């Protein structure tokens, strides 16, 4: 258990993916330098143990950012929580260097994240879902000075309430299913892929379809083709073919820490230009290597006359009918929009995600949160939601800020710097309140 009853924490973190892990590390490092004046923090995660998109840990899937964009390096290259420190601790630094590759596998990066979270484990409670964030019952938000966070044990062992002066919400992307498709045991979103796939008898899977032309779709299509040599796989692609993710050096600058300022302080036209010119660095695009792998497989099959990988281009899924083991997929093809059906044993919708949406968690608190003319949250440069003056507590977002802070909002590229900025903001606001006396430190002790 990573918290103490009846304490009012400086920070409660909701969700413990890489973003809040990076924040826990930043606060841990602040504590080490603060000589008893550290920030008290505790984090709640609904998964039973640390997991970073576990259902997409496909063999040979690689990271889409350099290993240097780890939890800490861009904020503090001397931190002992870097990917290089992990490699050193694992005895693999020379081998990694010999590999001459900036992009580790997702599996290796996952191991790094697990290693880092183990070193701040005292501040994390797994198997705990945050249900709501609220003002204490009957209290005046200004005088209460803290918020209540209602946490539910996912194994059904009841709920508890934790008090905090600041809350950092980092609950991650929300899976998007296409209209007309409902998830069940044979219709899967990519975010649940491996879990659902492993429940099936592979021999039963002879015809599969994968919807989408993004990285998830391409990786899953390759995986199914390789794992199921007896199966036919249909890739349902809305474009004419997969498009490559632009990770060339000039385009990559949009993920630099300084690009956050350019976006945040830019005009509406500047922000629009970021999206118009650079959406293809991340959305509906695929790494060059995976595109070439897929093309090679299809070509080799054609040479042998054994085609079993079918690319249905300019095609969108428009509906799914399910009955028992039967799954009938309606597809809308080509520019004239002809609709036809395809029968499959399983359908994977690799149809992307919606941005993080904290409104449900905020409940009544939402009325203190200011919104812009299009209804989106106003967010300060330090990632704090702009609130009306009656609410002195801080509500920070890690994710869900693409409209204010740009493309790195949902990615790993900037988490080291962003977490440092949030930590600095919380430390500064505590100093402003004059609460600079020693407070109990709950951020985990470095056991590494
Ligand atoms: P993340 O989604 O990782 O974590 C949120 C956590 O909050 C989850 O563990 C969830 O269980 C928990 N949670 C949600 N609601 C809760 C609640 N109410 N109470 C308690 N816990 C709750 N980006 C990149 O820059 N490079 C890359 O290589 C990749 N690779 C990649 C692969 C795949 C398969 C996907 C789908 C996405 C990526 N991404 C990526 C983008 C991805 O958003 C990013 O890697 C991180 O997951 C962002 O970390 P977060 O901690 O913000 O969210
Ligand atoms: P994505 O890039 O948003 O792609 C979703 C795809 O689904 C798009 O091609 C979209 O087409 C398509 N689509 C949506 N509805 C459809 C419909 N009804 N019919 C046909 N196609 C439909 O999502 P993603 O691939 O899951 O990627 C999300 C994030 O995860 C990205 O940041 C990506 O880099 C990351 N990721 C990383 C890795 C890795 O690190 N190895 C692996 C997987 C994912 P439109 O463009 O027409 O909407």
TrEMBL record:
EC number: 1.14.13.59
Pathway this chain belongs to: Siderophore biosynthesis
The protein's required cofactors: FAD
InterPro entries, per database record: FAD/NAD-bd_sf, Lys/Orn_oxygenase
Reaction equation(s) it catalyzes: L-lysine + NADPH + O2 = N(6)-hydroxy-L-lysine + NADP(+) + H2O
Keyword annotations from UniProtKB, A to Z: FAD, Flavoprotein, Monooxygenase, NADP, Oxidoreductase
Domain of life the protein comes from: Bacteria
Entry coiled-coil feature ranges: none
PANTHER family: L-ORNITHINE N(5)-MONOOXYGENASE, MONOOXYGENASE
Family stated for the protein in its record: Belongs to the lysine N(6)-hydroxylase/L-ornithine N(5)-oxygenase family.
Annotated protein name in UniProt: L-lysine N6-monooxygenase MbtG
